[in-house]
Amino acid sequence: MAERPEDLNLPNAVITRIIKEALPEGVNISKEARSAISRAASVFVLYATSCANNFAMKGKRKTLNASDVLSAMEEMEFQRFVTPLKEALEEGSRKVRRKLQSKRRRTKTKKQIQKSKTRAGMRTTTKMRKGWRKKNRMKRRTWTTEEDGETGALEGTALKRLCAAFSCWTEQSWAEEPKKMEVKTD
Q1: With contact defined as beta carbons under 8 Å apart, do 166 and 179 qualify?
Q2: Dihedral sign for Cα atoms in the order 95, 97, 101, 106
Q3: Are 146 and 180 in contact (CB under 8 A)?
Q4: What pLDDT does residue 76 have?
Q5: How far apart are CA 36 and CA 42, in angstroms?
Q6: φ/ψ bin of 26: left (φ > 0), alpha (ψ from -120 to 50), beta (otherwise)
Q7: Within 13 Å, how many C-alpha atoms sit on residue 23's CB side?
Q8: Which residues pair with residue 154 across a beta bridge?
């Protein structure tokens, strides 16, 4: 806990700001008055916390919650503070909910953007693949023989098979010389 009694005092800057907001403009307050108000506020906070702690212990809890503080205010006979405290609590809860919802929306939007980028990339890649396949299907490779000047067209795997057969055929030693073939791409 606190080692010195001064450690329990509220910060002077906060107390001074609250005093200035409460008093009309042009009114000055002495250092002793600020010190007295600071000590009184500290005692009030400690007493309210102690009463709220009693309500938490009755509920077999170690953590104070808002209902404990509101019950403590009623027990200390500060009923006029209960309504403003409830309103401030509701306003704070609304702000927290709004922040959480906006954060969820932002993350949801980011995820949707990432998904759409990924999907668009996948669509583009798929379209590119389909286009590439289509181009290859449409691309005809022609072959000609030097002897008779024959020309023909082969596509895809048929051309690959022909080339494989041709390479095997030329590697073998045949008695007669094979025909020369050229493979051209349109």
Answers
A1: no
A2: positive
A3: yes
A4: 92
A5: 10
A6: left
A7: 12
A8: 141
